[in-house]
Amino acid sequence: MSDTTSGAPASSTLTIAKAINEGLRRSLETDPKVLLMGEDIGALGGVFRVTDGLQKDFGEDRVVDTPLAESGILGTAIGLALRGYRPVCEIQFDGFIFPAYDQITTQLAKMHYRSRGRLMLPVVVRVPYGGGIGAVEHHSESPEALFAHTAGLRVVSPSTPQDAFTMIQEAIASPDPVLFFEPKGRYWDKGEVDLTRSSGDETLDRARVVREGTDLTLVAYGPTVSTALKVAAAAATEGRSIEVVDLRSISPLDTETVVRSVRRTGRCVVVHEAPTFLGSGAEVAARVTEECFYSLESPVLRVGGFHTPYPVAKIEHDYLPSLDRVLDAVDRAFGF
Amino acid sequence: MNQHPDEGAPLVQLVTPEGVRVTTDENAAYRERVAHLDAAALRDLYRDMVLVRRFDTEATSLQRQGELGLFAQSLGQEAAQIGSGRAMAPQDYAFPSYREHGVAHTRGVDLADVLRLFRGVDHGGWDPTAHNFHLYTLVIGSHTLHATGYAMGVQRDGLVGTGDPERDTAVVTYFGDGATSQGDVSEALVFAAVNNAPVVLFCQNNQWAISEPTSKQTRVPLVRRGDGFGVPSVRVDGNDVLACYAVTAEALERARSGGGPTFVEAYTYRMGAHTTSDDPSRYRSAAQEDYWRQRDPIDRLAVLLRSEDAWDESWAADLQAESDALGERLRETVRGFTAPPSSSMFDHVYASEHATVAAEQAWFAEYETSFADAGGAAQGGAR
């Protein structure tokens, strides 16, 4: 382990939550126009402690405890961005984003377009999302497709501490508004993080092959990447070689990386926690069908949430795309 | 008992509807704020209002001729817009709704450019940062939060309470009586209040939200909305340009000096339809319209100018000529606003390249070219 000039360690084992915290800290340090806004993000450090200690170090004007009004948070963030600031808004839970939906889709997404490029809104909206944490209603949802469907927004989701650390910095540096979906069920997953980096091996909008394989491509992002890797390991014991692609970005969708993989493997299964109906997996399936038609050995299959509201915690394990449900889809793909 | 929401709140007025100056102890501080406006300055305000009214008339005609898809008149609200707009300093920033043509004029926006939006050739039409005048916002009330956030940025820039009148900066946002029912306006009041933001929330109560009277939005005078948020509030005669100038100047000074936000209710009347697609005869009486025609803000200032010997016939003739020239220029300019190329729909969706947009743009270009290859049939855009 080497030291940086500041004396901080160059790499460290961090949780995803802490990696985002460190990424936010770097952005606050390097750009005086960056400020964090949200409910309970100051003294409390956020309900998930992602902003822990930041208000103490950067002050109440840069780590701002806002009134409890999501539309107000986004609306004032837009105004701050128009004045040259780079606000990073925290939405406390996925299901609380809808009071701000109008400001995000009607204003944030369209200002650059409406002004013919004269006005930029480099606003990041951090959203802890996804289930599996035994929460009450509105605390386990995956609304990413709703935002990916709106032109003008970038929608990304990290799956590892390293990506969490670099992608949050890249999102803040982006000239476009970015919806940053944080897999809250994986907040405490640990991994090695190179703290000297402000950007990743890929740009923010690129997918990554995280496990190579030859027989089937498993496409995942955010919380389902680790599930996909477990599926690939389990399938390997049955002699099936599965390639896992971590999309990282939902908008834009890195079709190129997915298509390159499926043209080799001939099979594709997409996994996400959001409902499959009109979800981002449907878009992946359509693109793959269009561009890999002659390479496909089986239809593209999807595994995800059902077309129901997110169920009660005691049965959420049967709603989420579990290891068994993904393996079942893999079996079906090989059965054609 | 239900009280009519227009009743029960004092109104700042400096000139009566009959064009007579109002001199009371209560309005002394406001009178002081317009004391420096001499005859020439009053004529300038009159000129502003006449030109904006002419713009309104021309734009409405252009819509009737099919040159504009739609138009929203500011007719009757000239005093509220010119009075408040002229009270602003160059460094101040305004966030309008969509009928603030008078304010646009005071911020130096070419009124012809306002018509780009209504002609369907642009979603905006001007460079907001060149005029410190944001683009029109069509979704009611959303921009009041943008104004508040912008004001919070001004605070962070250290441009409040420096004592330097050329640096201290305030923000004004315009919205109507209907907008006060939107959650965003209440949230703007909350954020403005708790942050002590240098913003003036300027509500033009023109009494009609398309077909709904103010009584569908509130049971108390709108000016009382500010109280619960801890925001100082004032109600002004919105058809009295001097009073509008005075209350805005006071609110701006409070904002710039660090005194925080102000809620202004400018009580006025939408003399025209909501837009050219509207038909007010379905929901309001001719008698009400006649009543307010007697309170026309431009006539009021004309009477004052004459009574104070500030009216000059040759000046008036020049203004008439200027107004006619504006009309002619608008007609010519608007007809010259041609449709942008279809391929421009892909421009500026994102500030940095986005693969989906890039791919669709490339596909569209190829699709268009395929027609050209087949004999140029696609030229002229007849698809």
Strand order of the largest sheet of chain B: 1-2-3-7-6
Total strands of chain B: the figure is 7
DSSP strand tally of chain A: 14
How large is the count of helical segments of chain A?
11
Taken in chain order, the helices and strands of chain A follow as EHEHEHEHHEHEHEEEEHEEHEHEH
Based on Cα principal axes, name the global outline of chain B. Answer: globular
Reported by name, the CATH topology of the largest domain in chain B is Rossmann fold
Q: Sheet bearing the most strands of chain B, described?
A: 5 strands, parallel
> Helix/strand-derived class of chain A?
alpha/beta
CATH topology of the largest domain in chain A: Rossmann fold
Oligomer: heterodimer
Q: SSE layout and pairings?
A:
The complex is a heterodimer of chains A (336) and B (383).
Chain A (H helix, E strand, L loop, with lengths): L10 E5 H15 L3 E5 L15 H5 L4 E3 L4 H13 L3 E5 L10 H8 L2 H4 L9 E6 L14 H5 L5 E3 L4 H13 L4 E6 L6 E5 L13 E4 L4 E5 L3 H13 L5 E5 L2 E3 L3 H11 L2 E8 L4 H12 L9 E5 L17 H13 L1
Parallel strand pairs in A: 2-3, 2-4, 4-5, 5-7, 6-7, 10-11, 10-13, 13-14
Antiparallel strand pairs in A: 1-8, 6-12, 9-11
Helix pairs in contact in A: 1-7, 3-4, 8-11, 9-10
Chain B lengths: L27 H7 L4 H26 L13 H10 L5 E3 L5 H6 L4 H9 L8 H4 L10 H15 L14 E6 L6 H13 L3 E7 L2 E2 L2 E2 L11 H5 L3 E5 L3 H16 L5 E6 L18 H8 L3 H11 L5 H24 L18 H19 L10
Parallel strand pairs in B: 1-2, 2-3, 3-7, 6-7
Antiparallel strand pairs in B: 4-5
Helix pairs in contact in B: 1-10, 2-3, 2-12, 2-13, 3-10, 5-13, 7-8
Features:
heterodimer, A: 336 residues, alpha/beta, Rossmann fold, 2 domains, five-stranded mixed β-sheet, 11 helices, 14 strands, disordered N terminus, B: 383 residues, two-stranded antiparallel sheet, 14 helices, 7 strands, 8% strand, globular
